[in-house]
Write a structure and sequence with these properties.
12 strands, three-stranded antiparallel beta sheet, 64% strand, mainly beta, 154 residues, nine-stranded antiparallel beta sheet, globular, 0% helix
């Protein structure tokens, strides 16, 4: 049976460039304790809303060659339910990135595919997530990168 829900979440992160090919990051996920509201048509009895608790994660990326980026992150450190994410990004043409990844938690696995478009300091991202608890999920993101005067914007 199909279930529908809607929610808005906010994350906050910091990324440190260790070298040209290696970066480390720290992410505070769902820092506002994201509320998920379930559609009444789903037939769910009782509460029609859930909360995703805030959490902390750490990640790293490595760029072995110019057009490929590998990432790994370990999260859910605050809520005692560890998860591991791995992924690869490929840059086929300027301003476009293609992504694929896997997610492991409590012996369950899922996958995701996506793309990103970078233009000046703006970035639009889309991901299709094969979720193990929900139906497939579409995720959209828009972000802006602040740069210091004279700094290159990759």
């Amino acid at each position: 049976s199909s279930k529908e829900a809607m929610g808005w979440g906010f994350d906050l992160g910091i990324l440190s460039q260790i070298s040209e090919f290696f970066r480390l990051g720290l992410m505070l996920n769902d820092f506002t304790d994201t509320e998920i509201k379930w559609a009444k048509e789903t037939g769910i009895k009782g509460l029609s809303e859930d909360k995703i608790k805030r959490d902390l994660g750490i990640g790293a990326y490595f760029k072995p060659i110019k057009y490929i980026l590998c990432v790994i992150d370990y999260s859910e450190l605050l809520i005692d339910r560890a998860s591991l994410h791995t992924g690869v990004e490929v840059f086929p043409v300027e301003h476009i990135v293609l992504r694929g990844g896997a997610f492991q938690q409590s012996g369950k696995y899922n996958w995701t595919l996506g793309l990103g478009i970078n233009w000046k300091n703006w970035r639009f991202d889309y991901a299709f997530n094969d979720h193990f608890d929900l139906d497939a999920t579409n995720i959209f993101s828009l972000s802006y990168r602040f740069v210091r005067k004279g700094e290159n914007n990759p």
